[in-house]
Write a structure and sequence with these properties.
Largest sheet: 6 strands, mixed
Oligomer: single chain
Number of strands: 15
Shape: elongated
Structural class: alpha/beta
Number of helices: 10
Radius of gyration: 22 Å
């Protein structure tokens, strides 16, 4: 039975994403779910060989990338993303029995969740203090333990702990979604689908123009970059990892060319190529015509 780690505890959106991967047939057999306390801890279980794969959140349509996941992917032995899924995100505010709106002084929320319901809290609970929770399900656990009066959580977590629903479908932004990825130790890249995403992390030479040079490798080949983000290396002041997502697959000739060109002057950590769930952007053009033209030149068949 495959053991799959996820950012827990039970009842988080990440566990729901794991269930979605199971429904989509990502695994060959029923899995054993293994909860971890944070995205880095989830990925560390994979690096340590304690589990066969891991599911972590990577990007929110409201708050952008999930920093703990991005930082954990950049450090330590290389891991690889092999699939993604997306979930609509709206929260359930849970309370203990008998707690009413006018008695709530504290509300627990995972920081990413708090940012997505800040307006609702300000309008509905203007005098409540937000207390950081370890996760969305952790917020429900804090409510059960009496650490906070209410929690920004999930319906599943509240139901499992026997809590009452104060408000459901809470979200400041309609249509909010979060992308989750399935991560393994390095394996053969999934087959190209034509709707793919490729992700790399770059460490660039500390010299003028190195970032422009990296961007140019994509731009001159017509490769659509869908995410560019810098994160500190935490090793030396002024040094950064650059996280780049582009449309296309490592088996697309132009994407492969760009990766090879980057490798000539930068440290490149390949995070994977995999099928994107939503429309990733403008796909790279095929170089078949160019390759055929070049071959005709070699054979002396091209007249102009």
């Amino acid at each position: 039975m495959p053991r799959i780690a996820y950012f827990g505890p039970t009842g988080t959106f990440t566990e729901m994403a794991l269930a979605r991967f199971e429904d989509l047939g990502a695994f060959d057999a029923p899995v054993e779910r293994v909860a971890a306390a944070s995205p880095p801890a989830t990925l560390q279980l994979l690096r340590d060989g304690e589990v066969d794969a891991a599911v972590v959140p990577i990007e929110s349509s409201v708050e952008g990338s999930v920093p703990p996941t991005m930082d954990a992917l950049a450090l330590g032995p290389r891991l690889q993303i092999v699939a993604e899924t997306e979930l609509d995100i709206a929260f359930t505010v849970v309370v203990r029995s008998g707690v009413t709106i006018d008695t709530i002084a504290t509300i627990g929320a995972y920081p990413v969740a708090a940012a997505q319901v800040r307006q609702w809290i300000g309008d509905t609970l203007p005098n409540a203090t937000i207390v950081a929770a370890s996760s969305n399900a952790g917020a429900a656990e804090d409510v059960e333990a009496g650490k906070v009066d209410a929690g920004v959580s999930t319906a599943l977590a509240g139901e499992r702990l026997g809590l009452e629903v104060l408000a459901d479908g809470v979200a400041d932004f309609a249509g909010a979604r979060t992308r989750f990825v399935l991560v393994t130790r390095p394996v053969s890249v999934p087959k190209r689908t034509g709707r793919d995403r490729t992700s790399v992390i770059l460490q660039l030479p500390h010299e003028p123009g190195s970032l422009v040079r990296a961007m140019t490798e994509f731009a001159t080949r017509g490769i659509d970059l869908t995410r560019i983000e810098s994160r500190p290396t935490r090793m030396e002041y002024g040094t950064y990892f650059f996280h780049l997502d582009c449309v296309g697959h490592i088996d697309d000739a132009l994407v492969a060319e760009a990766l090879k060109a980057l490798h000539r002057f930068a440290q490149v950590r390949f995070l994977g190529s995999w099928a994107a769930v939503s429309e990733p952007g403008v796909a790279p053009v095929s170089d078949d015509d160019d390759a055929q033209w070049l071959e005709r030149l070699r054979r002396g068949e091209e007249s102009s």
